[in-house]
Every structure is written in structure tokens, then in C-alpha cells.
């Protein structure tokens, strides 16, 4: 949770503190905003954060949709997390590790699964 005290005299002496859940929520929002992936269905939603002096080390696990290039997806995820966390908090992102847990393939039509029978030649 963030808290701030405003001093109208111009000399701010308040302090902003961020709960780890706030940063985790920002990371989750950035993942939900990324096209071609879904969150891992688990209690932690596949997000692990480690706060160090160098910055935040993030470890995220996602499920990719078929048809998207994995390296491009991972790069977009890294960039979006970095941009959103650094613009919304005072923290810097030191590293983002992306793990693609699986791929969701499109469902096939039942009619597409069964090949058509060749037509019988007519005898005339």
C-alpha cells in the first residue's frame, strides 16, 4: 500500500512506501495487457518478485498462444513490466525472467478432423 503526506509549504518530509502486493499487482496488470499470453492458473499467478539493492528481480511464468513468436513475446513482457513498474513506483527493474510454461493451441473443428471420403466413380 502506498501512503503519502502532503505538506503545502513546499518542503516535503513525507515518505512513500510500497507494499510488495502493489508491485505484484502492477506486474499482473502488465501481463494482462500483453497480447498472446495468459496468466498461469495458480495462487501466485506465476509472479515472483525479489527486492534487492540493485532493483527488483521479477520471475514470471505465462502460457503462450499458438502463432506468437516466443522470443518476441518474452521481450514484450520484459519491456512492459519494466515500463509500468518504473513509471508507477520509485523502484527500478533489475531483471525480468520469463518462463513460457505451455502453449495453447486453437481447437480444431470436428469437420476438419475427418477427411472427406473420395467420391465413388460412377459406372456408365
Descriptive account of the structure:
Helices cover 29% and strands 26% of the residues. It is an alpha+beta fold and 124 residues long. The protein has a domain of 86 residues: Alpha-Beta Plaits (2-Layer Sandwich), CATH 3.30.70.1350. Strands 1, 2, 3 and 4 form a 4-stranded mixed beta sheet that branches. Strand 2 and strand 3 form a beta hairpin. Helix 1 crosses helix 2. The mean pLDDT is 83.
Summary?
This protein has 124 residues and is α+β, with helices and mostly antiparallel strands. It has a domain at 20-105: 2-Layer Sandwich (Alpha-Beta Plaits). The chain is built from three helices and four strands.
Secondary structure blueprint with pairings:
Blueprint: H1 20-32, E1 37-39, E2 47-52, E3 55-65, H2 70-88, E4 93-104, H3 110-113
Parallel strand pairs: 3-4
Antiparallel strand pairs: 1-3, 2-3
Helix pairs in contact: 1-2
Q: What's the CATH topology label of the domain at 20-105?
A: Alpha-Beta Plaits
CATH superfamily of the domain at 20-105: Cation efflux protein, cytoplasmic domain
Mean pLDDT: 83
H/I helix tally: 3
Spatial gap, N to C terminus: 84 Å
Return Rg in Å: 24 Å
Shape category: elongated
- H-E order: HEEEHEH
CATH class categorisation of the domain at 20-105: Alpha Beta
Low-confidence stretches: none
Fraction of residues in β-strands: 25-35%
Give the helix proportion (percent range): 25-40%
Number of DSSP-assigned strands: 4
Mind telling me which CATH architecture of the domain at 20-105 this is? 2-Layer Sandwich
Helix/sheet category = alpha+beta
Q: In this structure, how is the largest beta sheet organized?
A: 4 strands, mixed
